[in-house]
Amino acid sequence: MEELTNEIRLTNAYPITDEVGSNLKPFRFKLTNTCGVGVDYNINLEVMEIENRIAAKNIAVKVDGNAKSILSNNPEATPTYQESDYTAVESYTTYSGSIKPYESVEHEVRIWLDESAGNDSQNGKFYSKVVIEARQNQVVGQNFAEIAKLGDYVEMTPTSTSYTISSSLTGYSSDQSINPSELNLWRIIKINEDGTLEMVSEYVSSNVVYFYGLIGYKNYIGALNTIAKQYENGKYTNGSRYTGYYNGQTEYLNAFCTSDPTCTEPNGGDDEPAKSVDSELINEILGNRVAYVVGTNIAANYWYGRRHFYWGNSSYQVYSGITIDIEGDFLKLSDKTRLYNTRNGEFSNSNYLRPIIILKANVLYQSGNGSLENPYSISVNE
């Protein structure tokens, strides 16, 4: 506990109203949890033994903006303060709270002689100590959603160690392979009311994935969502999606290309009709969209789950994927994203992968504090 003001003593006090008492200078202090587990705590006001001591029934106490209470009406606690200067003879719990790992809270305590105090309290003395009683609350087996915070790091290894991406999904000339289990460090970007947590991979895959031509463009959203599903682990997850396409659509053809199966209809639109909020979530929670190749410190371009259609005129249209570049910005009309244009035909392009997974609501805390150096480890009841 860090004391931010001097202690409070009442000497030669006289009764005052609650309005006046609530505006007295408070005793301010700061509590910091330096451990990797959460704590519950009580703010106890311990009464010191002195001559002519004012009875606790005459003392008003106010913690922060909470309602005033009479000290003796608060729950009794066991006195603990015993030093050469004073010894506590009574103790009352005036407030209870909790602090998550490595967080701090500040409190203000005001005491005064209550306006209901009788004449026997005149010219009395009241010395007290604020004593913090704390205990660990984050224990192995606790529901993880209760302690998780946005931006926390979580270890979770996908089940699959190898997945073959069929050329029929991407339009590329050959099948491609990835190792989903290599992406095992995640960041929490959304905490849902049902207790599930949505997490984006901290890193991107070590292999790029190619898309090619009109087939790659048509299948782009569905293929990325199909790939993202390989990063699940049925023990811990109950869903996934590829970063960018927020409504979970997995069809290879979406509403952007319905009347013309080759996706050459002039739409005149700029982007997909179904907008995504993943980019905003990641940018807000993590501070930017930049991601590094797993196992390296190399920033990389990665596919983003929205397509881009550019209508130049009746004879020139461009069909592209969208990429997040090494600065965390969007690339749309770029040599690194285009898959087809009506003048030059089909193109292939490759970028890295950054999936999103959804943790089950019954996942439990195992260890860690959610930092990069000590990410959370999770478990489930077998």
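^ that was protein a. below is b, sequence first then the tokens
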Amino acid sequence: MDIYTFGDINKEKVLLIHPMFTSAEFFRSFIEKHQGDYYFIVPTLSGHSENSTFISTEQEENTLNEFLKSNNISHLNLVVGFSLGGNIAFDYFCKNADKIDKVVVDSAPLFRFPLFIKNHFYRKYKKCLNRVKANKVNAANELNKCFDGMGESQQYIAPLVISDSLKGLIESCYNNNLVNLSVDAQQKIVFVYGTKDVAKLCLRKIKKYKASKLVILPNYNHCELFMNNSDEYWEKICKS
């Protein structure tokens, strides 16, 4: 994991975690407009840069904890994660709810699939990555076949993802344990799903968090509102 920071460390601290096959660059245009108002902590997850392997959510969280400790940061005002980043953001929040004021979990595939389904997704995504790496197809179009609407954001990072990373990424995407949380902790959570997003199928599982807030975005796909209008997203989802 590579961690980048932007803004004044004395201002509200915001952790942003990107979707799979993207990087910290996913947030560039938004950060450039708002770094005067916040202190942004923005990792590029392991496996999403050259000579890097994604092992597990736990390893990413350990690296994040080391960074926060070394920078004397004991409290986060806001954590926002998208897709895979949403899974990691949620897991991290569940372990550190007393240190986080609010978490936004957007388009997160909070599933717990059996091995044969995880193997199916591994083969599907590996085939997609192999075609992209062969440079014989339009990368964005090919990625959109697996990650509808995400291809433009993924096309430059996906070729860097190796098979060993993909195994860990599949586990982090599709092997989630939805732990019990106190009402106080649940009230800090905002779940966000578009009606066109297949990840919304996990809604029946997150209903257990009855005190959390659920935002349904009509006619939006995976991570789409933030990608289309990050300022509207920030006002509607993060600041409200």
